[in-house]
Amino acid sequence: xxxxxxxxxxxxxxxxxxxxxxxxxxxxxxxxxxxxxxxxxxxxxxxxxxxxxxxxxxxxxxxxxxxxxxxxxxxxxxxxxxxxxxxxxxxxxxxxxxxxxxxxxxxxxxxxxxxxxxxxxxxxxxxxxxxxxxxxxxxxxxxxxxxxxxxxxxxxxxxxxxxxxxxxxxxxxxxxxxxxxxxxxxxxxxxxxxxxxxxxxxxxxxxxxxxxxxxxxxxxxxxxxxxxxxxxxxxxxxxxxxxxxxxxxxxxxxxxxxxxxxxxxxxxxxxxxxxxxxxxxxxxxxxxxxxxxxxxxxxxxxxxxxxxxxxxxxxxxxxxxxxxxxxxxxxxxxxxxxxxxxxxxxxxxxxxxxxxxxxxxxxxxxxxxxxxxxxx
Length: 376
What we know:
By secondary structure, the chain is of the alpha+beta class. It folds into 3 domains: 4-174, no CATH class; 192-280; 284-374, Methane Monooxygenase Hydroxylase, Chain G, domain 1 (Up-down Bundle), CATH 1.20.58.1690. The chain has helices spanning 63-69, 177-190, 302-305, 310-322, 331-338, 356-374; strands spanning 9-14, 17-22, 40-44, 53-55, 76-78, 83-88, 93-98, 103-112, 115-119, 145-151, 155-161, 167-174, 192-195, 201-204, 210-212, 220-228, 231-238, 243-248, 253-261, 266-274, 277-281. The strands form 3 sheets. A 9-stranded antiparallel beta sheet has the order 20-19-18-17-16-15-14-13-21, with helices on one face. An 8-stranded antiparallel β-barrel has the order 5-6-7-8-9-10-11-12. Strands 2-1-3-4 form a 4-stranded antiparallel beta sheet, with no helix packed on it. Strand 15 and strand 16 (220-228) form a beta hairpin. Helix 4 (310-322) packs antiparallel against helix 6 (356-374). The chain is globular, with a radius of gyration of 23 Å.
């Protein structure tokens, strides 16, 4: 794996023009066929001295790839954990990138009719290992079908389907992986209203890094995120300097004081500060019923779904069916949804009523439920 410092934007001079690009080349052996035009390129960075040059083959030499590459050009893609940048290669589109901590992740897409087929990709490792060929860094296997499509006003998503036509991975464009990770924590981990046994209320807002309940005067406070391995985690640093780790449970939150030790670059948890119980979720819903309305609005990534507990995921998955009026065999599920004013049971099988977004999310949720079970 290579460090994130090697895949930050560097300055390129292409045929007399200057442009920012995100690319990890550090070796004169870096494989060809990875830049959008056939030019001699001078890399200017600490890692790649300006006296190194390479000439690359390009998409213009691969007609089958040229048109399809436009679908990905200029975009970063993420599954909530890693980012990937597309570059045309010999007969396929290569995606390489990594996390905020390190690089070395890749996969490839081979154009086929109105979809793609998943294949291995390459990533520069170091001068001794210039190419990691055949590596698939997302959930899927070689030959899996990949679709890139617009879902209403939600946006464009990349979805991987296995041989049984079951969705296994979702990616979406991102301008900033750090911002995406922080937004996912704000929206899917923190957002909600919570109350302690003594009546103290905590409100984490769903659309901004702001919380109410920590200040003695009752006013809301802004916060930033603590980082572990250079990646935002569920640690908030309030505008008054106090810091807390926020852990989610089925019923609420466990809030602990924590301290950062810069000499060791780590956070240490202290005493429990509060254990408020959830009063309600705060998700932007429009006119969608339920606690988890977003499952009807957009395909969910693994990175987003990882913020929910095993029990939340079970309720989330079955809420998709409940919105279509499904009757449940499990007594606890039937009781749970009968307590919802919007629930109107009408059928034992609503599978034909599901949208493609809902079908994708049901399978993605099942995947994360399985991970929870395996980690018990």
